[in-house]
């Protein structure tokens, strides 16, 4: 087996079984914050135990190992086709080892061939950069949280949301209210203001590559992120929607140019089982350094 | 924690109320989208299988064969239940299901079904696939594996003190409806 394939299997294993440090810190803080003796606290305790157990047993944190999203930063001249071939092999092998569930279904026939490889599965996002390093990031995003994502077109009469930041705030909070506990909260939001319908959702998901405790470079967006987080945590939806203090663990917002005629706000919801890892690869495809 | 062992009587179910933490022991059957659609459309249960007094678990587990060729559940958290809303109440009634375990809660049709049939909705912790898999002692059988694929098959599982919370009881209360209403009011104050 090629070194690159081995490295990619290890990235898949780690992403499926080991919660990133930034997310674990946020979960522990949320557990501390929930009121003793409540079902919200019980839920957070089980979540904490689950994180430890998955890591120890090297088994999936959540059985829904989700959509498999690769984000690859690579230099000019990098062979993307060879990389994708290796990644597909790695995904199939990782599925055989139980790091991934047999999770990919033919939408027309309903058949699940058990490989997790098919049209659009896994998904690759390649970005060239002016650097010799190859950085691979992987997000595994489960269906429960994907199903509560939402895209709004402003203005929105029902929510009294206009084409401004306050309008964005209103629809993002509406997405949190609509999601309740169905996306396995406490969740993390990735949001894109603007773009077309496809790039809006695409950009909203790249926000999940940011460290949970970083701050937005853009002061206006930073303000919006903090505001949404604080307000959402006043709503009392709580872990699993049981009621409680922690509804969201984080909010990340970006903006993309839009057409004069369009104003989309795309909201992706990530469950507490925020599975995201990445590594810088060496010249032979070996793992040089973990990114999270 | 209130301990319940299958088959669970209607009296025990009627004694449960929203907010109770329970531990289920005995047998549960997984069943999700494909199974619910199949049963709703008049499909029969496999020979020898009865759901009377039983528990349906909305779950698509990761199941592996060990070195002896036996099935082992290696990850088994709940899946989102609301997708079964069109079918659940009818299936509870037709097959005598006394409890459903899932996540995210269900709607008014299921809530009315719980009151009518003496059934209950139990919320397991979404994403807690390892903690919950540890409560599964054994795979007794699997049905529709070929037809529906592994995540969608009916897995007959022996469980011990499987933890869940009553979020919809047989007296018409739904924690989900209550939290949604309360959070909507707080949101309105903060817009």
Please outline the helices and strands.
The complex is a heterodimer of chains A (292) and B (191).
Chain A: H1 3-17, H2 21-33, H3 39-57, E1 67-74, H4 80-96, E2 123-128, E3 134-141, H5 143-147, E4 150-153, H6 165-179, E5 187-194, H7 197-206, H8 219-232, E6 248-256, E7 264-270, E8 275-281, E9 287-290
Parallel strand pairs in A: 1-2, 5-6
Antiparallel strand pairs in A: 1-3, 3-8, 4-7, 5-7, 8-9
Chain B: E1 2-5, H1 10-14, E2 21-30, H2 33-40, E3 55-57, E4 62-65, E5 71-75, H3 85-95, E6 99-102, H4 108-117, E7 120-123, H5 129-133, E8 136-143, H6 145-148, E9 154-168, H7 175-189
Parallel strand pairs in B: 1-2, 2-3, 3-6, 6-7
Antiparallel strand pairs in B: 2-9, 4-5, 7-9, 8-9
Helix pairs in contact in B: 2-3, 3-4
Structure characterization notes:
The complex is a heterodimer of chains A (292) and B (191). Chain A is of the alpha+beta class. Chain A folds into two domains: 111 residues, Dihydrodipicolinate Reductase, domain 2 (2-Layer Sandwich); 127 residues, no CATH class. Helices cover 37% and strands 21% of the residues of chain A. Chain A contains eight helices and nine strands. Chain A has a five-stranded mixed sheet. Chain A has a four-stranded mixed sheet with strand order 4-7-5-6. In chain A, α4 links the parallel β1 and β2. Chain B is α/β, with parallel strands linked by helices. Chain B has one domain: fumarase, CATH 3.20.130.10. Helix content of chain B is 30%, strand content 30%. Chain B has seven helices and nine strands; from the N terminus they run βαβαβββαβαβαβαβα. Chain B has a five-stranded mixed barrel. A two-stranded antiparallel sheet of chain B has the order 4-5. Chain B is globular. The termini of chain B are far apart.
């Amino acid at each position: 087996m090629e070194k690159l394939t081995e490295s990619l299997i290890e990235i898949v294993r780690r992403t499926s079984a080991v919660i990133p440090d930034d997310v674990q810190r946020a979960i522990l803080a949320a557990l501390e914050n929930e009121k003793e003796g409540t079902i919200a606290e019980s839920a957070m305790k089980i979540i904490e135990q689950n994180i430890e157990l998955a890591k120890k047993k090297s088994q999936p944190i959540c059985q829904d190992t989700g959509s498999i999203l690769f984000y690859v930063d690579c230099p000019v001249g990098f062979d993307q086709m060879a990389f994708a071939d290796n990644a597909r092999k790695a995904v199939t092998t990782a599925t055989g080892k139980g790091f991934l569930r047999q999770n990919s279904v033919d939408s027309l026939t309903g058949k699940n061939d058990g490989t997790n490889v098919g049209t659009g599965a896994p998904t690759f996002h390649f970005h060239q950069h002016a650097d010799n390093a190859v950085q691979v990031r992987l997000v595994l995003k489960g269906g429960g949280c994907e199903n509560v994502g939402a895209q709004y077109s402003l203005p929105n009469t029902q929510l009294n949301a206009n084409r401004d930041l306050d309008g964005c705030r209103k629809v993002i909070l509406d997405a949190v209210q609509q999601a309740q506990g169905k996306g396995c909260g406490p969740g993390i939001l990735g949001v894109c203001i603007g773009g077309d319908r496809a790039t809006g959702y695409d950009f909203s998901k790249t926000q999940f590559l940011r460290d949970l405790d970083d701050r937005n470079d853009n002061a206006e967006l930073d303000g919006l992120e903090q505001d949404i987080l604080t307000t959402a945590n006043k709503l009392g939806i709580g872990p699993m929607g049981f009621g409680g203090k922690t509804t969201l663990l984080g909010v990340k917002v970006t903006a993309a140019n839009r057409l004069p005629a369009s104003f989309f706000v795309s909201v992706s919801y990530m469950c507490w089982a925020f599975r995201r890892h990445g590594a810088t690869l060496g010249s032979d495809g070996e793992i040089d350094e973990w990114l999270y | 924690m209130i301990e319940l062992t299958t088959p669970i009587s209607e009296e025990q179910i009627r004694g449960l109320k929203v907010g109770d933490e329970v531990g289920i022991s005995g047998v549960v059957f997984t069943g999700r989208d494909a199974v619910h659609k199949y049963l709703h459309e008049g499909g029969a249960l496999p020979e020898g299988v009865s759901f009377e007094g039983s528990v349906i678990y909305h779950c698509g587990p990761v199941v592996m064969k060990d070195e002896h060729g036996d099935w082992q559940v290696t990850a088994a958290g709940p899946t989102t239940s609301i997708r079964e809303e069109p079918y659940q109440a009818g299936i509870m009634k037709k097959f005598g299901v006394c409890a459903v375990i899932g996540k995210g809660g269900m709607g008014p049709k299921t809530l009315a079904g719980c009151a009518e049939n003496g059934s209950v909705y139990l919320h397991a912790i979404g994403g807690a696939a390892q903690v919950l898999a540890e409560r599964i002692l054994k795979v007794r059988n699997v049905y529709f594996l070929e037809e529906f694929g592994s995540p969608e098959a009916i897995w007959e599982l022996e469980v011990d003190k499987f933890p869940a919370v009553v979020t919809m009881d047989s007296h018409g209360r739904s924690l989900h409806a209550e939290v949604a209403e309360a959070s909507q009011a707080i949101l309105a104050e903060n817009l």
